Please model this.
Amino acid sequence: MNRVRFALVALVLLTACGQPAATPGGPARTTLTVFAAASLQPAFDNIGAKLQSTQNIATTFSYAGTQTLTTQLTQGAPADVFASADVAHMTTVQSAGLLLSQSALFAHNRLEIAVAKGNPKGVHSLADLARSGLVVVLADPSVPAGKYAAQALAKAGVTVHPASFEQQVTGVLSKVAFGEADAGIVYHSDIVTGRQVDGVVIPDAQNVIADYPIAVLKSVENQAGAVVFVDFVLSTEGQSILTSAGFQGA
Amino acid sequence: MKRTRVPPAIWLLAALGLLLFLLPLAGLIVRAPWNQALGELTDPTTTTALGLSIFCSLTATAIALVLGIPLAMILARTRGTLRNILRALTTLPMVLPPVVGGVALWLAFGRRGLVGSPLYQAFGIQIPFTTAAAVMAETFVAMPFLVIAVEAGLRSLDHRYEEAARSLGAGYWRVFTRVTLPLLRPAIFSGAVLCWARALGEFGATITFAGNFPGRTQTVPIAVYLALETKPEAAITLSLILLVVSVAILVGMRDRWLGAL
Model:
């Protein structure tokens, strides 16, 4: 009997240990649900707070790697607005017939090398990332940041041997911030808002500019709110929030 | 002997419970791209991840057996508050979200961790991002399942057999290997199977502590998660392969190991 009870408890625990699926918003949504690329979190949290205080619009954000959000959307996750870290994933969502209207570019982001505070390992260029003994972490090539990083490294003609391919750019940032990795390639905005790491600039000739499109989804429930949100992001005020978070305006 | 009739309500609830397991399984099987399955099976990404998963989960189970059985023996001997504290500590990884477990492992064994920092400074050893880290993450998360099972087995053990052996002149280790362990076999077996299954499916602690690199730390659950976003068919196939391998190993081990359970 004891064994049976143990087995039951164990089964419950086993099933409870899975990966949490981030699909916010139940059947009846009164607040605005925005699916946004992980790199947008600091800027969008700010924009959400602004809209809450000025227009009384409550926003729930689901931040994750753009590729994760794209999968969730194509699998039928309900949301009002989608903000992607690249055009390719927005196109995927569009070809799945999930967009209510055309997407609009609202921000750009440059790549930068993240290193520990004070740059103790003396990393000054992409070429330095190939140095042996340097622990480098990149975003997975399926993640926009990882795709861009691979492009930048190819432009610079550098081959790195990363210790890990992270599932989102914030994973790269945290591994550098915790001191587990010596360097990683992230967005300029991550370094501006992260504050726990230093940035090493990548020259224009080697850099890749990320384009961020935003669109209202067909699954929209709060269409008026969604339009207000997108308009605010594109407005002067929204753009200045994005700029102070390290993005470049559209 | 006539068995008591099971009321319909129990049957109904049991059927609902079973459906919860069967429907997702049916979903995988129905949606699986069977014509691509063979190609997926021979894909280097798949074989590498599968090999690594089997290696890491079996190693984690082996470590759990070596460390977990003694831990269960100590647990079974203690009483009162000490026992409650030890038990809570042992089962902590079961309640901790695996990602938090991964961060905790970092803080202990990372380059700046409690143990990891001196290790790195003295010998230049860095545990995160290695296969050893993946094994550690799996052991951390899965060992409690073994400890709890073995402890329960020890508590329900009839100690008269051990006493009899001792009175006949057998020493501690002889009693342990010839009497205690054989009596504990069913408990150890079921604990090891649960432990192994948990280790095989481990995702959160592994990706946090060990990262993701093909051939080094990319186990099947991580490969499935990444494939889901780029090629969902491959993810489904990979999941089915993991399922088939698990069932094959479970059935195989059962036949070989078990007469009594």
